[in-house]
Amino acid sequence: MRALSIILLTLLATPALAEPQLVARLDIDASQRDLAANTAAPLENGVAGNLLGGLGSGMAWAGGDTFLMLPDRGPNAAPYNGYVDNTTSYVPRFQTFNFHLTPQTNGLPYRVEAHLDATTLLWSPTKLAYGSGLAAHIGNGAPAINTPERFYFSGRSDNMDRSQPSDFDGDARLDPESLRVANDGKSIFISDEYGPHIYQFDRESGERLHSFKLPQGFAVSFSSPRGEEEISGNVSGREANHGMEGLSLTPDGKTLVGIMQTALLQDGGGKEGGYLRMLAIDIASGATRQYAYPLDNWGSDNKPKYNAVSEILAVNDHQFLVDERDGKGRGAASSAANKLIYLADIAGAQDISALTGRKALRKAAIHKTLFIDLVAVLNAGGVPSEAIPAKIEGMSFGLDVTLDGKTLHTLWISSDNDFLSAADSLPNPNTVYVIAFSDADLPGYQPQNLTI
Question: Helix, strand or coil for residue 380?
């Protein structure tokens, strides 16, 4: 496939803050197209089916200068059809980028040289359930590129079998939010909000290889193309569009740990819950454990106001970075306020698989400490709060860098621009930040044991 050059923006003031500190920044022009030319035809809402957008929903290091970037279910920020929550038949995919850090003397210590090397579409070798589109007057939801051997997933919310619970793995609808690369580099793991699901795909072809069985209580029994109707029609399970938001893989490659975006309905839901479920899955056996992650409450006990979680990243086999954030910032006509990355520890924590409800989860909640106040770090690196993206959603470690003679580790952070190249009459690119940190900042850090 041809390489696609990316527009870079790196000229910012050199940060005065000690580690962790911003060392590079990349803005990816969101008006470009990806390399899946066979999906370029306009979607139901008129947007090109291969728009290079939404990249920062997930980000994973694949060794060297290679990173995988994950868009979510596709362009649905602009209203066009409420019956399907404005979703389209966009085919979920992941993008393979080469991000090379090069030292520079002006601005930030490093610039990012970027190329898009591949676009990989996600599909199943067995038939999937698609919506007819009759109620929405938009036609069948099956992607036009389907073949008798390949059934492509789709972001459209009615692409499901409504007679099945939401974790039915024969549904075509897929809202991917996070991805991780297996240690041998041959497959990837992706979390999905619709199910919720955790799937394993072949990295080269995009074929689904495996569906992990999630515990009872995560799915909803009543499914609907409309999120509000789905929430009102269920008393347990995930809230609509607030499913398995983050996914991590321990450095030894043996355990997946996912995290929900908000509390399950039986635990109080997004408005009153305050405690999210982290789900650990042993890849070999499928055995699971659950842990309670406590959210910050910016309101009161009587009127709580919680952030949501967008990502989780394994530091070692028991510590995880968790991206806990508000919805303010660039793209939301406001200034970023709470973009906090916590260090959460499950060592010795209680398995909450048999517990239900906010009070029970509160007593078993794991311990967390603040690792990075991202707004403060970016401000110190010359990024004003109003320029910080609202939807900071991806996290990955990368190669080490040298700064002032010291070897430092790197944390890569990405944003989701909702496929909107402009917002509030301003450019709205997909942005990647590179933050350097030392062993003293994160003593337990263990690089992933990639054998690619």
Answer: helix
pLDDT in tens, 102-128: 999 999 999 999 999 999 999 999 999
Domain locations in the chain as residue ranges: 4-437
What is the dotted CATH code of the domain comprising 4-437? 2.115.10
Dist CA 387 CA 379 (whole Å): 10
Pairwise CA distance, residues 418 & 327, whole Å = 13
- Token pair of 4, please? 């696609």
- pLDDT tens per residue across span 336-345: 999 999 999 9
For residues 33 and 50, is the Cβ–Cβ distance under 8 A? yes
Buried b (16+ CB within 10 A) or exposed e, 27-57: bbebebbbbbeebeeebbbebbbbbbbbbbb
Q: Order of strands, edge to edge, in the sheet holding 197-202?
A: 176-181, 187-192, 197-202, 208-211
Q: In 3D, which of 349, 439, 451 has the Cα closest to residue 400?
A: 439
**CA-CA-CA-CA torsion sign (165, 171, 176, 178):** positive
Report whether 166 contacts 219 (CB < 8 A): yes
How far, CA to CA in Å, does 315 sit from each of 342, 371, 374, 395? 11, 12, 18, 11
| Average pLDDT, rounded, for the chain | 94
- pLDDT of 395-432, one tens digit each? 999 999 999 999 999 999 999 999 999 988 889 999 99
